[in-house]
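Supplementary Text 2. Reproducibility record for the structural model of the 427-residue chain.

All settings were left at their defaults, and a single model was retained for analysis rather than an ensemble. We include the record here because the model underlies the residue-level annotations in Supplementary Table 4.
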Amino acid sequence: MKKMPGMLDADLNGKVCLVRMDHNVVKKGKIKDTMRIDATIPTLLHIYKQGGLPVLMTHVGRPFDKKTGVITISEADSVQAIVNYLQTKLQLKGLIPDLQADGKEGLIDLKPLKPAIDKLKKGKVDFVYLPNTRWFKGEEAKDESADVLAKKLAKYADVYINDAFGSWQAHASTYAIVKYLPSFAGLLMQKEVDHLQSVFKPKRPLVGIVAGSKFDTKIGPLSSLIKIADHLILGGVIYNAYLCYKYSIKIEGVGEEDIAAAAKFIADSKEHEAKIVELPFIVENKGIEKREAKSWKIHNVKELKKGTKLGFVLDVAPQNFEIEEIKKIFTEAGSFFVNAVMGYTALFPEGSMAMYRLIDSCDKAVKLFGGGDTIQDFKEYLPGVFAQAQNDPKYYFFTGGGAILDAIQEGSAYGMKPVKALIEKKQ
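Retained model, structure tokens:
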């Protein structure tokens, strides 16, 4: 395989650098967590050091309605909060070009980019930040309109840099654009892909831990991960679906589609089924609105009769991680890959907390964490442990979760389509 071209090898002096970031951290107009923004700052500073002129872009939220094709432009999905943060943190002046929407089709006319980039070239601003990429017509398209948008964007730049590891889907701003400009990986992208190699060539034994709200979206990655890992632990709704199928029980909120997906996963993974580590103690709650002393109880799933109907199972109980056989798997691990919040942490954070603490106690193991919710909950519920982990070389926190699962499904750290596009591009 050809080497992924990195920005350290690019001539950026005097060049307008169109840089795709993953700054999708804005909720209702406010930044929830700056981690993803901070992770891309070295790329931005390198552009300045090399004399480049940065034009940044990211997606925020999901303003595109796939059913109707309508793009809703709202301040809630604006990049303004990101620009404000960068201006304050780096003491720079940024500019968002004033592009006008064409009805419900989003942003089409990019001509107002020219005066904004002229200001950048004249030093009147330090960076230009494009409006939310998902406001542009063609960004998420699967037809020629993606190429139309990519060509329009390419007109205003000399070089394209992809530093958006977390934005793994093949969209106009992550994939199609590569056809029209010299293209390179940013510093964060290179760092993330390098660490991803530790999942494919791990220090063994490798314990993979994955949770999620839908099983059908996880079948591909899980079917690949179970072949790579030495042990696999499931959490969330996908674990509930697994238990429903395996033990012939019913759990509130687990649909037939998820149970069918769990059945397919088990059938497809028959050869590796022994790698699945079951956590027998589960937490049942009467609802998902509140937690009260009499509203929840712990069950040992292995003691439930076939046909048992449970309410909402919202966590795995902390005592799972005190079972000697399970503790041994953790303490003997060489590596952990964790993309998992084990339950509904708004009501029941204890299962996730117990697991994160046990992982943290495994001093010799490499600890790879991915997924926004996973890292956010780790940070929120165990702030001291999380803070110490930032300076521990055995920890690594990816800026993307879906990106890692996509790469695992593809079978390579270089498997994501935007990364493949960079590698296959002839400079």
